[in-house]
Design brief:
This protein has a six-stranded mixed beta sheet, with helices on both faces. A two-stranded antiparallel sheet has the order 1-2. The chain has a two-stranded antiparallel ribbon with strand order 8-9. It is an alpha/beta fold. It has two domains: about 250 residues, 3-Layer(aba) Sandwich (Rossmann fold), CATH 3.40.50.410; about 35 residues, no CATH class. The chain is globular and about 80 Å long. β8 and β9 form a beta hairpin.
């Protein structure tokens, strides 16, 4: 557990590093990735050759006797919601960072990028309940307060209920938004809610993992505790079959979630506590931009 001085130092480091990284690398990638995600009705006009028949306003067409189409205006403001899993398993990290600290850093990068583009940012902290809800607002001061909240927050519960958090978002957010879900997804029964959220919003699932969740040491006895249940277990890392089983299980779980995201139309981003998360985010933005260009 970090003391107050260490916590304050980490918060300041995240704030300063994130703002610098946004200005240097992320702002342009972010804007090109998420521009035009929302449109709102503006007016109707006479149908012209080449117009998309899906935009025909049949009520006005029937009333006037001439075909009319709806015109839309791109929303100038984008709203982002960040759903961050603060359950007990997020406090695990075999290196210098826990999964929750990586989530906080990546949240800071994306939130500052959105603030730089004058977008609204909201936050939901989840365990097996919705622990905290911050309504979307603009501004760097708002972002900095949320970073501080994520780093300092002490959850009331250690469990995880992803479905409940997604259902809550769908209830409180009537209009379409971009939603980033940060979790290690150590939960079950959330598939339906994930699909519904992907239908209503532009959903990005950010999968967080640590090296020791994928690879055991090659030798030695390792005492492990389930952060959410408190159950203790001692394992023999010299057992090659066990190491291969752990590796295969981790890969299978990740692939299953990735396939689910593909099926429901959600985006997928995998981040490791030991990895270069800034590089991964930029690559994610570039890949998403390329996919958008190919779809046109």
């Amino acid at each position: 557990m970090m003391n107050q001085k260490e916590l304050e130092s980490k918060v300041r480091h995240i704030q300063v590093h994130s703002r610098k990284a946004v200005l240097e690398l992320l702002a342009g990638e972010y804007r090109s990735c998420f521009k035009g995600m929302g449109v709102e009705f503006e007016d109707v006009r006479d149908y012209q050759h080449g117009d998309d028949v899906r935009t025909i306003d049949w009520n006005v067409t029937a009333r006037t006797g001439r075909p009319h189409v709806k015109t839309f205006m791109e929303e100038r403001e984008l709203s982002l919601y960040f759903l961050i899993d603060v359950s007990g398993s997020g406090d695990f990290g075999s290196g210098t960072s826990t999964k929750r600290e990586v989530a906080a850093r990546v949240f800071a990068l994306l939130a500052f990028a959105s603030a730089h583009n004058h977008d609204n940012v909201g936050l939901i902290l989840l365990s097996d309940d919705v622990e905290c809800h911050v309504e979307p607002r603009k501004g760097k001061n708002h972002v900095m307060r949320m970073i501080d909240l994520v780093m300092r927050y002490e959850p009331k519960s250690q469990g995880t209920d992803i479905a409940h958090a997604l259902d809550y978002l769908n209830q409180v957010r009537g209009r379409r938004c971009v939603a980033f879900l940060f979790s290690d997804f150590l939960d079950h029964g959330y598939e339906g809610s994930l699909g519904e959220t992907a239908r209503l919003h532009d959903l990005v699932c950010v999968f967080l993992s640590d090296l020791r969740e994928r690879e055991l040491p090659r030798s030695g006895m390792l005492e492990m505790m389930d952060a959410e249940s408190g159950e203790m277990r001692t394992i023999d890392c010299s057992d090659g079959r066990l190491r291969r089983h752990v590796r295969a299980e981790a890969l299978a779980r990740q692939q299953k979630l990735k396939n689910l995201c593909h099926e429901v139309g959600a985006d997928w981003l995998s981040l490791r506590t030991e990895g270069d998360y800034l590089h991964e985010i930029i690559r994610f933005f570039k890949d998403r931009n390329n996919q958008s260009a190919d779809a046109k």
